[in-house]
Q: What sequence folds into this?
DNA sequence: CCAAAAGTGTTAGTCTTACACCCATGC
DNA sequence: GCATGGGTGTAAGACTAACACTTTTGG
């Protein structure tokens, strides 16, 4: 098949849903949009893709320029090719999911006026079709967090079990029994004690744990 | 951002990995390629996408023209935007996974010289980057078959438990105990007895089952 | 000493696994 | 009657779920 007409030429954009976990809250990175349409709305980071690079490369380069996130591991989630999703321009979007550890996330005060981490349960007004994209990747994020492989990437290097439990309660949308959660999580053999304590919250300080170096992929829930 | 140069214009193709299950064997639909390069190799069904349709619509239309498969439910798996994956033409591929019930699959004798169902463990020489795409979607197929939601789409309307067991052994890459498999599968409550028997194989005839009308999504393995 | 949050153990029920023999059919 | 493949039950072990009290800290 030979095709060469204008009717078949698309622009391609890569869109990033970047998540972090902060104190057991799951947060996503959004930018304040300053251009019409959707001026003042929040949007996901994105970039156009040239024919000399892959969609993922283009996005990683953009994320490095914009936020100094270097070489994030980005997972492709889906795409959107609805005609006219961008006015007067045939643009296909490829959606990516990535994790930013809280260490990287916390360094981002320099861009705090234009970009911000939002709790996924308290999202602002979102522009374009990014709301839909976001909802879709959150589902995938949840799926991923039910396996151990990516825990290390998204959870802080030192964490407490109550903190991780809060994240899972948020993901699963229900309360978990503290004793059972502990037993289960410890028995997975993924974490080790640091002999240190987190005194930043009220009440009895919680033990700090860290993930072991090599984490096998196990189902957690 | 305003972009309008040739450097950003891509062609887009949708590629289909269509699976069926035949006697407990998982098979994929391939076409014999008659053009250079890769003449004589087998390839996945595919089509180019115009700017007036979504990738999925374009593919469904193509599959209807080519095989009379009407409105398949296609799941997007991933994409490939490696520059030069097609010589001299910037083409991004979007990969889809679909199921064809054995009833539809069996009607396909009319195209049997150019298209054929291949057991996923006995694939022929495959052209372009389709081998890679195929391997990738097979992984996704496996994942999907571990949930009940899509069973009805891919398994024959009447099936025997040994047949379904063979499919799972093929997916999981290990032998399963017949008694335990039965107990598990029946206890899921997804199937009902047809009071009929399959006498097509040697030995004692196997009971035929069918899926119930409403199947909830449960983890099978 | 009081409020807040973290830590701990036991038991009952459910699910999973391992395992061996008999049954219905075609040749 | 024998080869082929299908159907059935039981017991031990692993995992899950439910449940209440004690510990450590800050104010």
A:
């Amino acid at each position: 098949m030979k095709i060469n007409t204008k009717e078949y030429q698309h622009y391609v954009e890569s869109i990033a849903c970047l998540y972090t976990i902060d104190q057991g809250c799951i947060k996503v990175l959004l930018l304040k949009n300053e251009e019409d349409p959707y001026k003042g709305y929040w949007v996901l980071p994105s970039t156009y893709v040239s024919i000399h690079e892959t969609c993922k490369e283009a996005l990683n380069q953009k994320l490095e320029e914009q936020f100094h996130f270097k070489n994030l591991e980005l997972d492709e989630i889906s795409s959107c090719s609805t005609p006219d999703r961008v006015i007067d321009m045939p643009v296909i979007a490829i959606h990516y999911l990535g994790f930013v550890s809280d260490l990287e996330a916390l360094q981002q005060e320099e861009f705090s006026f234009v970009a911000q981490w939002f709790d996924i349960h308290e999202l602002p007004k979102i522009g374009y079709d990014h709301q839909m994209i976001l909802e879709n990747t959150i589902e995938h994020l949840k799926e991923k967090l039910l396996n151990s492989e990516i825990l290390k990437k998204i959870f802080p290097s030192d964490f407490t079990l109550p903190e991780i439990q809060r994240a899972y309660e948020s993901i699963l949308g229900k309360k978990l029994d503290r004793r059972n959660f502990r037993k289960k999580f410890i028995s997975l053999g993924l974490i080790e004690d640091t002999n240190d304590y987190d005194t930043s919250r009220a009440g009895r300080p919680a033990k700090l744990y860290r993930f072991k170096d090599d984490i096998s992929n196990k189902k957690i829930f």
